[in-house]
Write a structure and sequence with these properties.
By secondary structure, the protein is an alpha+beta fold. The protein folds into three domains: 11-154, Adenine-n6-DNA-methyltransferase TaqI, Chain A, domain 2 (Alpha-Beta Complex); 156-215 and 431-501, no CATH class; 268-429, Adenine-n6-DNA-methyltransferase TaqI, Chain A, domain 2. It is 35% helix and 15% strand. The protein has 13 helices and 23 strands. The chain has a four-stranded antiparallel sheet with strand order 2-9-6-7, covered by helices on one side. Helix 6 (157-200) packs antiparallel against helix 13 (431-473). It is elongated.
Length: 501
């Protein structure tokens, strides 16, 4: 809450005492396409800016339009959903529309500086007061009377203006720094995409190929994979017939073998010497259901989840070449029932729903016993002939995703079916080169991940700095008074160039 010991001339009052009567907005439904008057809602102000082109219309316009029409200097606060979020109406928003019933409007009384009040509504003391005032179970909310009772540190008018100027000066510097940091983050994303693209085009290992001219080419590697798969199938079918005491008269039963999908190379680019185009299906392990999706329908529902036990790999776990450790569990008994959908360390899981497509990651050993959920494809590669890490990165590469983008379907919910995923074409290098590519990608992305970690630390620190600026602003410490009671420009709290909270 607000600290005691404020500068001379300051008083502790409340939002209700320094403003017009707090007013609820107009109650009506929103129409996204047609109408005469715009209806500003909580969701329209959560970013801190309003895109009036996306604000819907009133289904029913208010009879007393002037009562609800937004005017410059109005402040609206959300009373439900994103409780406490505020927006200051400026000249650019003049007469744009009315405010909805889940917003509360008030106007600071003259001569109080409206920006001074608005910045207070972003301060730690305000949010502490809002947190203490939240009520409700399904949707936290506050009402006008509770907002009116929020304590407010009122500075003399001339000091309010000085504080606003100092806040905006320091925020401007922070904003410039944040733009630079976010630019670094965006560049990291582009760098990752460039590394994966170079990897699947053979550019990362050009020197490696010069130094290793005699490795087994991918074509022969693929032949060994397919021959091994057929042999396993043949052995399994023979064992089944033997168990049934059935001896075949000839080899016609072997025609039941289903060859894996082959790539259509007519429009695929040329590959480096020793590489070959293959499909996901051709690289699958020589076992039943090496490529399979999760259980559908009543076999696995949200109500089956438990607080502990084997894991469920869901869409939210699958990042771009990254396993996101968001946990969901089922019971041991249920896990055994769904064992055919289980995953093992270094299995690849592919998101069949959403974009970019395909999006895939490796299952880490730390997951333990787990199954995949619907719309998640488990892909077990043919080891030791295939490096699953290289295949995972290849699936996430820009060239693969662009090719797959031509076959993805579904309006609003783009998806790939199991057959389409099996037919995805991938560039396959010799095994040793796969290992070399994987190691080089890991080395480069490891450096990138460390930079990204530092960027996140800087972004978090910028938020603490912003809150520290506001904390000091509304406790009378952002600028210093001289002996005459006037202000000396400059931040008193950051003589060392920092105001980290």
């Amino acid at each position: 809450m607000i600290e005691v010991g404020l500068p001379e001339g300051w008083v502790i009052t409340t939002l209700g005492e320094i403003s017009t009567k707090l007013q609820y907005g107009w109650t009506t439904k929103a129409d996204l396409e047609k109408g005469k008057i715009k209806l500003l809602r909580t969701t329209d102000i959560t970013s801190g800016k309003v895109d009036w082109g996306k604000v819907p219309y009133c289904t029913q316009d208010p009879e007393d339009l002037e009562k609800y029409l937004l005017k410059p200097g109005d402040i609206v606060i959300s009373r439900a959903g994103s409780v406490g979020v505020s927006f200051l109406v400026t000249d650019a928003d003049k007469d744009k529309g009315v405010f909805a019933s889940y917003l509360i409007r008030f106007r600071p009384t003259e001569p109080i500086d409206r920006k001074y009040v608005y910045y207070f509504l972003k301060s730690p003391d305000y949010w502490a007061a809002i947190g203490a005032s939240k009520s409700g179970i399904a949707v936290p909310n506050v009402n006008a009377s509770k907002l009116a009772d929020v304590p407010f540190p009122l500075a003399p008018v001339n000091q309010q203006k000085r504080i606003v100027v100092e806040i905006e000066k320091q925020f401007s510097r922070l904003d410039e720094a944040i733009v630079s940091v976010k630019r670094v983050k965006a560049n990291l994303k582009r760098y990752k995409a460039a590394v994966l693209k170079a990897a699947v085009e053979g550019k990362l290992t050009e020197q490696w190929r010069k130094e290793h001219p005699s490795v087994e080419p991918a074509e022969k590697l693929l032949q060994r994979i397919l021959a091994g798969r057929y042999k396993k199938w043949e052995e399994a079918e023979s064992a089944k017939m033997k168990a049934r005491n059935k001896k075949p008269k000839d080899d016609r039963w072997k025609k039941r073998y289903k060859e894996p999908a082959q790539p259509d190379v007519t429009e695929l680019p040329l590959l480096p010497n020793g590489w070959a185009w293959v499909t996901v299906d051709q690289l699958a392990a020589a076992e039943p259901a090496a490529i399979t999706d999760g259980p559908f329908g009543s076999n696995l529902k949200t109500e089956h989840y438990t607080s502990s036990g084997p894991r469920v790999i869901r869409l939210q776990n699958i990042g771009v070449a990254e396993f996101i450790d968001e946990k969901a569990h089922i019971s041991e008994v249920h896990y055994v029932d769904l064992i055919k959908h289980s995953v093992e360390p270094n299995d690849i899981v592919i998101a069949a729903l959403g974009q970019p497509a395909p999006k895939a990651c490796l299952v880490p050993a730390s997951v333990g016993n787990a199954i995949v959920k619907a719309d998640c494809i488990r892909f077990r590669t043919s080891e030791p002939y295939v490096n699953p890490g290289y295949i995972m990165y290849s699936l996430n590469s820009d060239p693969t995703q662009k090719r797959t983008g031509k076959i993805i379907h579904g309006i609003g919910r783009p998806r790939l079916n199991l057959g389409e995923i099996k037919s995805i074409a991938l560039p396959l290098p010799p095994k040793d080169e796969q290992d070399s590519i994987f190691d080089e990608i890991e080395r480069r992305l490891s450096l990138m991940r460390e930079i990204d970690r530092q960027v996140e630390i800087m972004l978090e620190r910028s938020q603490r700095l912003r809150q520290s600026i506001l904390k000091n602003a509304f406790s009378g410490q952002l600028v210093v008074q001289d002996a005459k009671g006037d202000f000396i420009s400059g931040p008193a709290f950051c003589s060392n160039g920092s105001s980290d909270a």
